[in-house]
């Protein structure tokens, strides 16, 4: 990210039905999302007013709503939708999204499967 300040939300949890297998759609599974926003916080720091920055509580609600909403095949698609939603906030210039799928249907022992994307307004 460029010379922007950062606001981070880690481990947002939601239960979704994303995946290509019928069992993933039928049974669902937990997903975790990390969000890192590139923002300029100077105006908010000076005014001490929430309206001058990103309301991260509201953003967290919207991220979880996407996780728990319309199913998609790929976590890449889910990450892209979350990034686009974050960039709708005029205060967000850049975003990094990581979607974790800790119970992905993998036949060997593993800790996590994740996809990380970075998007910017420009």
From TrEMBL:
Pfam families: FolB. Keywords: Folate biosynthesis, Lyase. Residues 7-119 form the Dihydroneopterin aldolase/epimerase domain. Pathway: Cofactor biosynthesis; tetrahydrofolate biosynthesis; 2-amino-4-hydroxy-6-hydroxymethyl-7,8-dihydropteridine diphosphate from 7,8-dihydroneopterin triphosphate: step 3/4. It catalyses: 7,8-dihydroneopterin = 6-hydroxymethyl-7,8-dihydropterin + glycolaldehyde. Gene3D superfamilies: 3.30.1130.10. It is an enzyme of class 4 (lyase). It comes from the Bacteria. SMART domains: FolB. Its EC number is 4.1.2.25. PANTHER family: DIHYDRONEOPTERIN ALDOLASE 1-RELATED (PTHR42844). Catalyzes the conversion of 7,8-dihydroneopterin to 6-hydroxymethyl-7,8-dihydropterin. Belongs to the DHNA family. This is 7,8-dihydroneopterin aldolase.
């Amino acid at each position: 990210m460029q010379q922007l300040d950062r606001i981070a939300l880690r481990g947002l949890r939601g239960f979704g039905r994303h995946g290509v297998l019928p069992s993933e759609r039928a049974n669902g599974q937990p997903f975790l999302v990390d969000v890192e926003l590139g923002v300029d916080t100077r105006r908010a720091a000076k005014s001490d007013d929430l309206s001058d920055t990103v309301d991260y509580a509201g953003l967290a609600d919207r991220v979880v709503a996407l996780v728990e909403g319309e199913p998609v095949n790929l976590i890449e698609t889910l990450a892209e939708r979350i990034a686009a939603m974050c960039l709708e906030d005029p205060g967000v210039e850049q975003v990094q999204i990581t979607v974790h799928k800790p119970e992905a249907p993998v036949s060997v022992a593993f800790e996590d499967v994740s996809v990380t994307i970075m998007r910017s307004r420009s």
